[in-house]
Specification:
- This protein has 407 residues and is an alpha/beta fold.
- The protein is built from ten helices and 18 strands.
- Strands 1, 11, 12, 13, 14, 15, 16, 17 and 18 form a nine-stranded mixed β-sheet that branches. Strands 7-6-5-4-3-2-10-9-8 form a nine-stranded parallel β-sheet.
- It is globular.
- The two termini are 28 Å apart.
């Protein structure tokens, strides 16, 4: 995004501010599609950034939904149920039934446990409707099931006239930087799918695979899995599989990170000993980079307004929280740092703003805006107070703690 656009956003909407450039989002989605090939499906993990869900409806073949809150977002946005991939480690019976009563057999559903399977079995028997299931293979964590449990799942499904194992779901972690990890996982999944076919006598037509593609957030921390060449190697690994079903790649940060900016104003500068500090009106309750440890690593940062000229100094950027952990970046070299300037943190479109301690110290939630070259600027969320969530409802005249938009 051009410097002039960033300056306009800060002046018009104030800080702290989240800004999403939808043109960059579309460009990135097209890049991923081209790199992985049209024969490979794409699934958007909306937990990376729910604000982008409607825009990703057009660019992705599926939208992964991991909570009832995310389901309600999709329902409110009128995302076609055929695109919804209902996932998540915990699916309560009442939640599963609500989704089934709303959309029934139109969605696809992951299965995380034998208990979850019985919920689907009971509903399908009662309503005599076929459900498309995706048992999740564990990577050794709390997610999914081991091979023995998967075999039990298959046996139970085979006894039901209304349940179908359409595919297998597998996700093994995030921020993978080396393509050899992709290759090793694809080879393992290929062997497993062939075993299901040849030994368990089950025809599985689809694989939903979350490769955990890394995004290079910090200077000097590149990731070959994020490049066109690295994604091309994933494409080649998929093409080399002996199993002949269809593959959908599940991505979140790879879609969304590039389009996001977090903007926070410098409100104070000082020097303690030999260290320069600038205090901003945001903080790490609103900004989180995966892998950042007390500001050790340096993301892309731009100072506006200004030309990024002059002598640079090392600055430690701290937020407005009353904790020594509120360090956004330590010893980063910047020029023209002074009160009133705005720091723009780049590649913050995924998780960054979702994983912070939003309620800590009862600070307001920042505004969220988007920019699209054809439609211009749009306010997605006005600044909202949070103090109503941090006190008893009976003493709260803010409508029982429900956040209200500021005028």
């Amino acid at each position: 995004m051009k410097k002039e656009q960033l300056e306009y956003a800060a002046a018009r909407y104030g800080t702290p501010l989240y800004l999403f450039d939808l043109d960059i989002l579309k460009k990135q989605a097209d890049r991923l599609r081209n790199a992985l090939g049209k024969e490979t499906g794409l699934c958007y993990a909306m937990k990376a950034n729910p604000f982008l869900t409607k825009h990703m409806e057009e660019k992705a073949d599926r939208i992964e939904v991991c909570s009832m809150g995310e389901f309600e977002i999709c329902r409110s946005l009128e995302i076609p149920p055929e695109k919804l991939f209902i996932s998540g480690v915990l699916k309560k019976k009442e939640d599963i039934y609500r989704i089934l009563e709303t959309y029934g057999e139109k969605c696809r559903y992951t299965v995380e446990s034998v208990r979850q399977l019985h919920y689907f079995l009971e509903w399908s028997d009662t309503h005599m409707k076929t459900l498309r299931l995706y048992p999740r293979l564990t990577n050794g964590s709390q997610f999914g099931m081991d091979e023995d449990t998967m075999r039990s799942i298959v046996s139970i499904v085979n006894m039901s006239p209304y349940l179908e194992i359409e595919g297998i779901h597998y996700f093994s972690g995030t921020q993978k930087r080396h393509t050899r990890q992709f290759r090793q996982e694809i080879e393992m999944l290929d062997r497993f799918l062939i075993k299901i076919r040849d030994e368990w006598n089950v025809r599985v037509r689809h694989l939903e695979y979350g490769p955990g593609t890394a995004v290079p957030y910090f200077h000097g921390k590149e990731a070959e899995t994020y490049t066109d060449e690295g994604l091309g190697k994933l494409r080649e690994a998929i093409r080399s599989m002996e199993w002949d079903g269809n593959v959908t790649i599940e991505l979140g940060r790879a879609f969304a990170a590039e389009c996001g900016y977090y903007m926070t104003e410098i409100r104070d500068v000082k020097k303690n000993g030999d260290k320069n500090y600038c205090i901003v009106d945001g903080g790490n309750h609103q900004l989180n980079y995966d892998g950042q440890i007390r500001g050790m690593y340096h993301p892309g940062i731009q100072v506006i307004p200004g030309e990024d000229r002059g002598t640079t100094k090392k600055w430690t950027i701290c937020g407005s929280l009353c904790t020594m952990n509120d360090v956004l970046c330590s010893d980063v070299e910047l020029a023209d740092v002074r009160t009133g300037r705005v720091l723009v943190f780049k590649r913050t479109g995924a998780y960054s703003f979702m994983e912070g301690m939003a309620l800590f110290l009862s600070h307001a939630l920042p505004s969220v805006v988007s920019y699209d070259g054809s439609e211009g600027w749009k306010v997605l969320r006005k600044q909202q107070d949070t103090w109503g969530f941090n006190m008893p409802e009976q003493n709260n005249d803010n409508r029982g703690g429900i956040l209200q938009w500021k005028n």
